Every structure is written in C-alpha cells, then in structure tokens.
UniProtKB/TrEMBL annotation:
This is Uncharacterized protein. GO terms for biological process: defense response to other organism. Residues 88-115 form a coiled coil. One of its GO terms (molecular function) is ADP binding. Residues 417-488 form the Disease resistance protein winged helix domain. Residues 154-334 form the NB-ARC domain. The keyword Coiled coil applies. Residues 555-778 form the Disease resistance R13L4/SHOC-2-like LRR domain.
Length: 852
C-alpha cells in the first residue's frame, strides 16, 4: 500500500521537477557568451544533478507502487513487510535529500534573479557604447594582402562558375553551406578573384554578414565600394534610408553584378532579405546577375531563394588535399623531412579535413624550430594544442550556441555516448534521444518522427556530418560527429554536467565510475568493472558472448537500476549456443530502450513484462532466437518492435495485438495455420498507429487469399516492405496479387524483395498508391510491368525515385516507362541486363540517372 505522506511528497517533487525542467530549458536557450549566460552557467551543473536524481526517484517509486499493487497478496505482504519497510525508509531519506537540494537551489536562484536584473541594466549602457561595428569587407579589400591557401577547390569552383556565369531572367541565388571552418569563405573569395568571373560581371560585391546583421550599414558599404570607401556607421534617418535603396538600385541597374553575402545566420527574420532584394535589380534583360550566400544553415540558403539544384554542400577536405594543405602551411621552407611523415599523418587525421584546424596546427608547427622532436610534441598533445586556440573554439561553438535548446542536448548526447568519428545510424540516435527524454511527441508528430527531424536539422546545420544516404539518395541514414565538434561538445558537456558527474578526465573508450553514460568496445572484462552506480545509457559494440560476459551481466550489468537504454552489438564468434544472459533483464525496471544485435540468445524471458517503460525493443539479426513470450503483450508503451533478420523466429505471439501504440514493426511473420497462439495477418488491423511495416512471407500457408487487403485498414502506413521466400509457388503468387478496395493514401515508400510472379502485383498502380514517391524492387522474377503500373490516364504517378536491382528477367523499355512517370528525378539500376533504352551508362551492371 502507498504511504500517504510519501505519496504527497512524491507528488510535490513532480511539481518541483516540472519547474526545474523549465529552468533548464531557459538556461539552454541563453548563449554562454552573454553576461547572463556566464552567470547562469555556474548553476546549470547543479540543476542537472538535481533533475537526474529527482527523475530517478520518481520513476523508481512509481514502478515499486505498481509492482506492489499488482502482485502483493496478504501472505506475501506480511512476509515481505520488513523488507518493504526498509526500502520505504531509504526512499523517504532520499526524497528528503532531494527536497533540501531543491530548496537551496530555489533560494540561490531568487537571490541571483535580483542581482542579474541590477547588473544587466547597468551593463546595457556599456555594451551599447562598446559594441563592435559590423565587419564588412568590400570586394576591393580582397585584392590586397595575403590570401588563404587554396587547396582542393578546383571542382567546386568550376561547378559554381557554371551556375553563375549564365544568362538568367530573374536574379539567381546560389547557396554554399557547410560547417564552420570548412572553407566556405575561401571558396567564395576564390570565385570573386577568378579571372573569368571578373570578366563576366561588371561589379562584384563581397559582404560579411555574420550574426549581428545591420542592413543599413550593409547597403551604405555596398554603395561606398564604387569610391573605394568603407563606411563603418550610418548616422542617417529612416527617410534618408529610402534614398540609399534608390541609389543602390540606380547604380546596379543595367549592370551584371555578383553579390556575395558571407556567413549568413538569421533564419527567423526574413524582412532584411526582402528589403535588400527590393534594392537589387532582378530583371536585367537576361544579363545574369547573381547572389551567392554562404552559411552554416541549409535552411537559410533555401529561405533566401536558392533552388535545390543551386545548393552546394561544401565538404571537408579529402585526405590528400588535407595533407597538401598541411605541408604547405607547416613547411613552406621545404624543410619537410621523411621522418616527419608519421607526425603529419597523425595531425592530419585529427584535423578531420577542416582547413581552419589544419592551418591552426600547421601555424603552431611553423613557429617551432625545424626539428622533429618539437613537432612531435605538438602531435602527441594535439588536443591540448587545439584547446589553446580560442579562434577554433569560437568558430565551432558559435554554431552550437545558435541551436535551440533541445538540439543542443541532442548534440551533446551523441558526442558523449559515441567516440570520435564513430558512424551513428539515425535509428540509434533517435532511440537514444527518446530514452533520455530529450525528444517527445509534439502535436500530430510521434516522438520518432520528431527525432528524425532533429537528426536532419543537425545535419542541415552542419553539426553532424552526413555519411551514407538511403537507396533513394533522399536523406542520410548515418552520420558522424567531426573530431573537433566532438572535442568541443565533450568540453561543453563537462561544463554543463550533461549526463556526467564532475571528474578530472572522462574517457569514452571505457566507462568511468562517475559517468551516467558509457560506451564499451570489445570483450575486456574490466569494462564492466568500471560501470558507475548512476549509469543511464550503455552502448556496447563488438562484444563477445563469452562466459566472462555472461558472468558480468549477472553480477554487474543487471544491477544498474537507473539504466534507461541498453544497446549491445555482438561479434560472430565460436561460442556455445546455450546463451541465456537476457533472463535477468526484468530487473532493469526503468529501461526505455533495449537493442540487442547479432546475439546468440534463444529466448526472451517472461520477465520482460516488468519493463513497463519500454518503448523500443530491437532484436535484430539474433539468428538463434526461436520465439517471443506472450508476456510481450504487456509492454503497452512499446512503439518500436524490430525482430528482422531473425532466421529461427517463425511467428510472433498473438498477444502482440495488445501493442496498440506500435509505430514501427519490422520482421512481422504471419503464423502458419498449424501454429496455435500465433499472430496472423488479421492482427495487423489492431495497429492503427503503425507508420512503418516490414513483413516476411516464407510459407504458402502463412497467408490466405485477400489477406493483403488488411493493409487498407492501416490508415497511417507510410513505409511498407515485403520480403518473400525464394522459389515461391503459384498459389502464393495468387495470394499476393489482388486489387485493393481502397487506396493506401499515406504510403510513400515501398520495398518489394523477391516478389514472385511474371508481372508486378495488380495493386502496384497510381490509383491504389496515389502518393507513392519511392519504389525499390529487388531480386524479383518479374519479366514485365503490368498495364496498371503505366496507369489508366486518369491518375498519374507521383513517383520521384525508382531503384531496380537484380531483375534478370525484366524486359522493359525506359522510353515507355518514362512517359508514365512525370515526376521522376532518379533511376538506379543494378544487374538488370534486359532493360532497354536506359538513359545512363552501365558500368559493372550499375547505372544511375538523375533528372538535370
């Protein structure tokens, strides 16, 4: 039974926790370089610690209450009364400690609030007087002094020259975006200084915008360039400002001009760009005037009018270009020695292709005496050397500070969990964010959808580097954190106490006893001996399911009562098939995310029903897994269930029908008729919220005629993948080929793997799939496309991309297909030898066409 006093104290703590979280959100939005940010930064680590402890206390207590109410009967109740009393006393003491910490924090914040109000009002006058003028560089200034070393820009330069050196009716906007320090400004200056560009344009203007944008000053400086003067302050009335606009328009009219707006940040205030555009002649008789925008934010370039085909992502330098730039800057006197090669490789690898970093480190080496041991000292202590560079830290932190608070936390989370340059999948990132409470459902968007948006935002803002795209070349599936950004985020995380307790040094290759997060790699037993008592997140890679591992799981891992996310991936090695280490998983009562990949586990224990908070359960490629327990139906918060590539798993239990919140279901196998208690196709109707479904058909009696019509009841289904066993018989083909009674309105991705038959299924037509955008057909026996696929003239396809792989028998003519696909922008084919009239060259069976 609940203790009324304790229950009241816990309710009060929930109210306090909501207030504390709102405080933390406010702190997260304050920029650290502001005076208020500097002051508040002292309290953020304390606040985070209190929040973590309060969350742990509340979640654990609620779980205990639920467990007692559901399981205690009178006899057990009296037998365990003493133990419950001891636990209750311990929880009460912890609640009192947390309440005292909250009280102290409230008192300090009340005092601080008064001090900040007085200090900010007095400092405002000083800030207004000492504010730096806008840093505006007329193009004339670019022709004097030293230039940046230009390396690896040849192809980028030619591509952008082709874009800007063409007649166009309207003012063309070209966007160049990339992370801080990658060389966007250098590329823009190189374009301005190119001889053919100078000949093409009558006037070239280069304006550095940066964070604090002053439109009036920019316009006056643009006017002043004709006379070679630089204006640093305006001092004009608003009515005179209109005259400035008119004068600028007059001077540029009938001229072919190039305007470079460098380092543009503002994304919310559109009015300044509208005002500036109003002063720029936009229809100069096809003369080809152009604006180039460089920015760290992709949405800025888009909002200023850059079309997708005129967006250039400025990547980091390749290894060879990085090496060349480093050697040119570090050893300009040609005193580069062969024995220095290992030093160079180490330094260049650490710089991660960022020209700003390469030049900074090369500059330090250049200042030293030309001897290897001094250069080697820099290479051995490169992190410390980079810490000394305020320019580097500011250049990267500026991007971080401009993020909204929730994205700051998402960025810090990935950086402290994963090592430098580690490739991270979008699914891993999103699931870990949700498990930490960083991402929530907002309006009509699920937490998973919101997390995917955050992933894309961080890539577009160049804090994450996109690695591998999906098969349709639409969005990144994996990313990595640049070495320098990772280094910066670790520093910020320690400042903020973000999932980390104070310590001298944090090592991410193994778990520290003082961290709330851990990443382990390999099978060393001492990894587990370092697990801290407050661990919330544990990610493990390349682990061996050895006896030592199983022993460590039972003795250490299963005692981590605050654990929210457990993500383990195993190596394929020769071990006994008798793997049962998952049996104690029910003790991790606060677990939100459980991901086990490539394990030899054979069963999932019934105690999984104790994981009432579980939202993500991924058992990918667990080839020995034979069945899931019926108790899995108790996990009513589950939104992701992934049992794909589990070769021994023949069906799912009927009780999964109770998982009404499922958003993603991968590895669904309808039970055969002879199986009792199995989940059939009809069960899919229970998943009204399902957005993504991957189903596998291995046997003819798994599905009946018209069973596929159940898909029409999944009104929110957006992604569908169907895999069929090889050598399917004609009976199965008939069951998969039907007409849908109503269209799948929301479906936009379709994957058909080993789909049988001579023709594609009847339901693959623009009427049944009116919003389908992406189609992938793989390893099929299809010989031709049906008439329905080409449409009946009433409904046109919206397909944007088609990928055809290993279709050895398909005989179709591209010319005919293209007429039925007016929106197509991408065609990829691999190993389709009988396709005719393809618009692209085929190399080693692979061809790719993109609509120009």
């Amino acid at each position: 039974m609940k203790d009324p006093d304790f229950h009241c104290a816990l309710t009060a703590m929930k109210i306090d926790l909501a207030w504390l979280r709102s405080n933390l959100e406010a702190m997260n939005e304050v920029k650290s370089q502001d005076y208020k940010g500097v002051v508040m930064a002292r309290y953020e680590p304390i606040l985070r610690d209190i929040i973590y402890d309060a969350e742990d206390m509340i979640e654990e207590s609620e779980y205990k209450f639920d467990k007692q109410n559901s399981r205690l009967v009178l006899i057990v109740k009296y037998i365990s009364l003493l133990a419950l009393s001891r636990e209750s006393r311990e929880r009460k003491e912890r609640v009192k400690e947390i309440k005292r910490a909250i009280r102290r924090y409230r008192e300090e914040m009340n005092t601080l609030s008064l001090e900040l109000d007085r200090s900010l009002s007095s400092r405002q006058v000083v800030l207004e007087n000492d504010r730096d003028h806008r840093f505006i560089i007329p193009y004339a200034a670019l022709n004097h002094g030293d230039h940046d070393e230009v390396v690896g820009l040849e192809s980028d330069l030619e591509k952008i020259k082709q874009w800007i050196m063409k007649p166009n009716e309207q003012l063309k906007v070209v966007g160049v975006w990339g992370m801080g320090g990658v060389g966007k400004t250098t590329l823009a200056r190189t374009i301005c200084e190119d001889g053919s560009v100078k000949e093409w344009f009558d006037q070239i203007m280069f304006i550095t915008v940066s964070l604090e944008f002053d439109l009036k000053t920019v316009l006056v400086n643009m006017l002043a360039e004709k006379e070679g003067n630089r204006v640093t302050s305006l001092g004009r009335e608003d009515d005179e400002f209109e005259l400035v606009l008119e004068e600028l328009h007059k001077q540029l009219n009938e001229k072919r001009y190039l305007l470079v707006l460098d380092d543009v940040w503002q994304t919310n205030e559109r009015t300044w760009w509208k005002s500036l555009k109003s002063a720029l002649p936009r229809n100069n008789n096809n003369n080809g005037s152009c604006v180039i925008v460089t920015t760290r934010l992709k949405e800025v370039a888009r909002s200023m009018g850059a079309a997708e085909k005129h967006l250039h992502y400025h990547k980091t330098l390749s290894w060879n270009d990085s090496l060349s730039l480093f050697v040119k800057n570090a050893f300009p006197r040609e005193d580069y020695l062969l024995e220095d090669e290992d030093i160079t490789k180490k330094v260049v690898a650490k710089c991660g292709g960022l020209p700003l970093v390469i030049k900074a480190i090369a500059g330090d080496i250049l200042k030293k005496e030309p001897c290897s041991y001094r250069w080697r000292a820099i290479a051995e202590n490169i992190d410390e050397e980079l810490d000394k560079s305020e320019l580097l830290y500011y250049a990267l932190r500026k991007s971080f500070e401009e993020l909204p608070g929730y994205l700051k936390d998402c960025m810090l989370s990935l950086s402290i969990i994963f090592p430098e340059a580690y490739e991270i999948s979008v699914e891993d990132a999103v699931h870990l964010w949700i498990s930490q409470g960083l991402i929530h459902k907002t309006g009509a968007k699920t937490a998973l959808e919101k997390g995917e948006e955050c992933f894309d935002e961080l890539i577009d803002k160049c804090l994450l580097l996109g690695e591998r795209k999906d098969v349709f070349e639409t969005r990144y599936q994996t990313c990595r954190v640049h070495n320098m950004v990772h280094h910066m985020c670790i520093k910020i995380a320690k400042e903020k106490n973000f999932m980390v307790l104070k310590e001298e040094r944090m090592t991410l290759s193994s778990c520290s006893t003082h961290t709330r997060v851990g990443f382990i790699r390999g099978s060393k037993t001492d990894h587990f001996s370092k697990l801290g008592s407050k661990l919330r997140i544990l990610v493990g890679r390349e682990i061996s399911e050895s006896r030592e591992f199983i022993s460590n799981v039972k003795s250490k891992l299963l005692k981590q009562k605050w654990l929210r996310a457990l993500d383990l991936s195993f190596t394929v090695d020769e071990v006994s098939n008798n793997i049962d280490w998952l049996h104690g998983i029910g003790s991790l009562s606060l677990l939100n995310c459980l991901k086990i990949r490539n394990s030899r586990i054979q069963v999932v224990p019934k105690t999984i029903m104790n994981l009432k908070n579980l939202q993500t359960l991924c058992l990918y490629q667990c080839c020995s897994l034979k069945k899931l327990p019926p108790e899995i139906g108790c996990l009513n918060k589950l939104t992701v269930l992934d049992v794909s590539s589990c070769a021994s798993l023949r069906y799912l239990p009927m009780q999964i029908e109770r998982l009404s919140n499922l958003d993603v279901l991968f590895g669904f196998r309808p039970a055969q008729r002879k199986v009792k208690g199995g989940c059939g196709m009809a069960s899919l109707r229970k998943f009204e919220k399902l957005r993504k479904l991957w189903m596998q058909i291995d046997f003819e009696d798994q599905i009946d005629k018209n069973d596929l019509l159940v898909l029409c009841d999944l009104k929110k289904l957006e992604v569908l993948a169907i895999t069929v066993a090889k050598n399917s018989n004609s009976s199965l083909i008939n069951k998969l080929d039907c007409e849908l009674p109503s269209p799948l309105e929301q479906l936009h991705h379709l994957y058909l793997h080993r789909f049988p038959g001579v023709e594609n299924p009847q339901w693959l037509n623009p009427t049944s799939l009116p919003n389908l955008s992406f189609l992938h057909i793989d390893e099929s026996t299809i010989r031709k496309f049906s008439k329905g696929l080409y449409g009946n003239g009433e409904k046109a396809w919206r397909l944007e991309a088609i990928v055809l792989t290993s279709l050895n028998q398909l005989e179709e003519d591209w010319t005919k297909l293209k007429t039925a696909l007016p929106c197509l922008r991408l065609l990829k084919v691999y190993d389709c030898p009988k396709l005719k009239s393809l618009p692209c060259k085929i190399n080693n069976g692979l061809g790719c066409w993109m609509n120009p």
